[in-house]
Specification:
Blueprint (H helix, E strand, L loop, with lengths): L1 H32 L2 E8 L5 H21 L2 E8 L4 H13 L4 E4 L7 H10 L4 E4 L5 H4 L5 E5 L2 H18 L12 E7 L5 H16 L4 E8 L4 H14 L6 E4 L2 H13 L7 E3 L5 H8 L5 E5 L1 H17 L3 H4 L7 E3 L2 E5 L2
Parallel strand pairs: 1-2, 1-3, 3-4, 4-5, 5-11, 6-7, 6-8, 8-9
Antiparallel strand pairs: 10-12
Helix pairs in contact: 2-11, 3-4, 6-7, 8-9
The structure holds beta-D-glucopyranose.
The site of beta-D-glucopyranose has 12 residues, from helix 2.
């Protein structure tokens, strides 16, 4: 019996020594070689098509980065389901877990200050993306970044798709030949920086391009396919035979408008334009549901978000990796794609 006790005690001592050694290695590995980085990603809504695309691209970037650099990446992605309070708690958790950097697609862009206060206290760098905090907030700390697309540029590209089509053949837009192009408008969330600017500059570009416009009506469909489809359904019955063009702030709403045309068996070549170039949008373009879209480079978008977060996590100089405007902003490239 005494012998057994002795063996157990010896085994216990060996275990303790081993545990101590591996703990030391872990700590040393983290502090000296920085062989692992931990990044939290907070999404405003995981069911948004565009955000979903960015999410998979970000996960792809993390894998590619691990392969290229040998640095292990732990990336946790959370979904706030459209609730700012939920997102605030998710950020609190990221802070308490000691993440090295976080990427935030803030639910309410006017409420970013809460997240900024906490992350500043915790010295945790933040890469905001897609939903831009107000400039005043962005200026509060040098470790706040924003990655997005230039909304005016997007809108001018979208408007020009239609200007070109009109120049080539006015009757392809002015379907009833009354000298006016009658359009309806589907807009994104009213609080989103992209929605207002996209609408304003898309219409302005059409006007500047000499397209005679007549607005029938418009509505906010919050980037959402089914809301857009419901509006379009209503307009098709309120304004039968009048709609010639549908201008949409994103591809999902463009697809929603097309769903309504399909449901009502409308064969008239109404032209629908979107923005994003999501896989669904590009597929809609291929099958002729959408006439054109503005595609941002989704790979570049995710790569830049990731590179900033990774550089911050390793304590590297971000500017050496990514060329930033004003030391904190990055605008992704984009291009118009449309049926020729
Ligand atoms: C995209 C939309 C997306 C929204 C989410 C916009 O920039 O064009 O498709 O729903 O961002 O914030």
């Amino acid at each position: 019996m005494r012998k057994i006790h002795g063996i157990i005690a010896a085994a216990f001592v060996i275990l303790l020594i081993l545990a101590g050694v591996s703990y030391k290695n872990f700590k040393a590995g983290e502090a000296d070689d920085k062989k692992a980085i931990r990044i939290g990603v907070a999404l405003y809504r995981g069911d948004d098509s565009f955000i979903n695309m960015l999410r998979s691209n970000l996960e792809g970037q993390a894998k590619e980065y691990e392969k290229r650099t040998g640095v292990k990446v732990v990336m946790e992605v959370v979904d706030a389901k459209g609730n700012q309070n939920t997102q605030n708690s998710q950020v609190d958790r990221f802070i308490s877990l000691g993440y090295n950097a976080i990427c935030v697609n803030v639910v309410d862009r006017s409420m970013a200050s809460n997240i900024i206060n906490k992350t500043m206290d915790a010295k945790l760098p933040v890469v905001f993306f897609n939903r831009e905090p107000v400039e005043e907030d962005m200026r509060r700390w040098e470790k706040l970044y924003y990655v997005g697309v230039n909304a005016k540029e997007t809108a001018v590209l979208q408007g020009n798709i239609l200007v070109e089509a009109y120049k080539k053949d006015p009757a392809s837009l002015d379907l009833n030949g009354d000298g006016k192009v009658s359009y309806v408008l589907l807009e994104g969330e009213s609080s989103h920086q992209d929605a207002l600017i996209r609408t304003e500059w898309s219409i302005q570009t059409l006007k500047n391009g000499g397209v005679p416009l007549e607005k029938i009506t418009g509505a906010i469909a919050n980037w959402d396919r089914s809301q857009a489809s419901a509006w379009m359904e209503q307009w098709l019955s309120e304004y039968p035979d009048q709609i010639e063009v549908v201008i949409c702030n994103n591809d999902d709403m463009a697809l929603g408008a097309s769903d309504a045309l399909e449901r009502n068996n409308i064969k008239k070549p109404i032209k629908i334009v979107g923005i994003d170039g999501t896989p669904q949008g590009i597929e809609g373009l291929r099958t002729g549901k959408i006439f054109g879209t503005v595609q941002c480079d989704g790979e570049e978008y995710a790569k830049v978000i990731f590179e900033i977060a990774a550089a911050e996590s390793l304590g590297d100089n971000v500017q050496d990796k990514v060329a930033l405007r004003d030391g904190k902003y990055y605008d992704c490239s984009q291009r118009a794609v449309y049926q020729q």
